[in-house]
Design goal:
Elements lengths: L1 H38 L1 H6 L8 H12 L4 H13 L4 H10 L5 H11 L1 H27 L36 H6 L6 H33 L2 H8 L6 H8 L7 H9 L8 H13 L2 H10 L2 H25 L1
Length: about 325
C-alpha cells in the first residue's frame, strides 16, 4: 500500500512540476483569446468572407490562425456559414485552419517545444488552410460536386445558438458558458465581460492542458522509450505516414498535442514525425468526421480527409528534409 501511495505522490509531483513549467504561457494564451472574444474581432472578420473572391481564402486562413475554436466547435459554424451564402472554398479553409492554431495554442507550443516549433506550426496551419481553399476551388470549378447538393439531408432552418434548435449535433452550446450565463446577461462592461471570457478559456483550455500534461507524465513514466523512439526519431522509414494515420482516430486537439509531445522532446524529437503529430492529431478529430459523414455527401468528406492527410504528410516531409 505504501508503494502505491508513494507512486501516486511521485506522479502528482511530476504533474505539478510540468504544469508549473507551462503555467504563465497558458495564462497568456487564455488572456489573448479572451480579449479576441470580448471585442468579437473573429466574428467581425468572419462576416467579410463572402466579399473578397479569391482573397476570402487568405482572409479565412488568417481568421483561422487566431480563432479560438477547435475542430468540433468550428464545424457547426462552417455549416451555418455555407447556409448563409459564404463560398465553400473559404469555409473549408476555416474548417481546417482553425483547429490547428490559436493564441493559446501558439503560446503553449512555444513554451513546451520552443519558438521554432511554434513558428513552424503557424506556417503549417496557414499552408494547410490555403491548400484546403484552393484545392476545394479547383474541384468545385471542375464540377466535382454540386454546391446546391453538398448535404446528404436538409439542415433545419433557424439559429444554431437557439436552445430549441432541432438538431443537437449542430446546436451551439455557447449559451452554457460562464460569460454568457452570468456576465453578459447582467452587464455590458467590457472589463467584466473579459473576465468572464477569461474564465471560459481557463475552463476549456485548462481541461485539455491538464489531460495533455497527464498523458505526457504517464507516457514518460510507464511507456518504454524504445516503443516510441522509432516513430518520433524517424528511425522507421515510414514513420511520418504511420504517425499521420495513427492519430486519425484519436480525439486530440492542438493544446493536448503539444503537451503530449513535450514529454518526448528530448528523444531527440525528429522534425517530420513531430510536425505530423502536431498537425494530424487536431485536424482529424473523430467527432468532426462523424458529423461530416452525417451531413455532407461522401465526396465532400473524402475531399476534407484527403486534404488533411496529404497536407500533413507533405508538410512533415518538407520540414524534415528541407529544414
Amino acid at each position: 500500500m505504501e508503494s502505491v501511495f508513494a507512486e501516486l505522490m511521485a506522479l502528482g509531483g511530476d504533474f505539478v512540476a510540468e504544469f508549473r513549467f507551462i503555467f504563465w504561457y497558458f495564462i497568456a494564451g487564455v488572456a489573448l483569446e479572451a480579449l479576441i472574444r470580448t471585442f468579437g474581432w473573429h466574428i467581425r472578420l468572419r462576416k467579410l468572407l463572402d466579399r473578397f473572391g479569391h482573397g476570402s481564402i487568405w482572409l479565412a486562413t488568417g481568421i483561422g490562425l487566431f480563432s479560438p475554436l477547435c475542430a468540433c466547435g468550428v464545424l457547426p459554424l462552417t455549416i451555418s456559414m455555407i447556409l448563409a451564402g459564404v463560398p465553400f472554398a473559404p469555409a473549408m479553409t476555416l474548417l481546417i485552419t482553425s483547429p490547428l492554431m490559436s493564441p493559446a495554442g501558439y503560446t503553449l507550443t512555444a513554451w513546451e517545444l520552443g519558438d521554432e516549433w511554434a513558428i513552424v506550426k503557424v506556417v503549417s496551419a496557414a499552408v494547410m488552410g490555403l491548400l484546403a481553399g484552393y484545392t476545394t476551388l479547383y474541384f468545385q470549378r471542375r464540377g466535382w460536386f454540386d454546391l446546391d447538393k453538398l448535404f446528404t439531408r436538409g439542415i433545419p432552418e433557424g439559429d444554431f445558438h437557439d436552445p430549441d434548435y432541432p438538431c443537437e449535433d449542430l446546436q451551439c452550446d455557447c449559451r452554457k458558458m460562464f460569460s454568457k450565463r452570468y456576465v453578459e446577461t447582467r452587464t455590458d462592461n467590457r472589463f467584466f465581460i473579459f473576465l468572464g471570457k477569461f474564465v471560459d478559456g481557463t475552463l476549456k483550455i485548462g481541461k485539455f492542458t491538464v489531460i495533455g500534461v497527464a498523458i505526457e507524465v504517464l507516457a514518460a513514466r510507464y511507456i518504454p522509450t524504445e516503443w516510441v523512439t522509432p516513430l518520433l526519431t524517424n528511425a522507421l522509414p515510414l514513420s511520418i505516414p504511420l504517425i499521420t494515420l495513427a492519430v486519425v482516430p484519436l480525439h486530440i486537439n492542438q493544446i493536448m498535442a503539444s503537451a503530449i509531445l513535450y514529454g518526448f522532446v528530448d528523444l531527440p524529437l525528429a522534425k517530420g514525425p513531430g510536425l505530423a503529430f502536431l498537425i494530424g492529431a487536431p485536424v482529424t478529430a473523430i467527432p468532426v468526421m462523424a458529423i461530416f459523414l452525417t451531413f455532407f455527401r461522401r465526396r465532400v468528406f473524402f475531399l476534407y480527409l484527403g486534404i488533411c492527410l496529404t497536407g500533413t504528410i507533405g508538410l512533415a516531409y518538407l520540414y524534415h528534409y528541407l529544414f
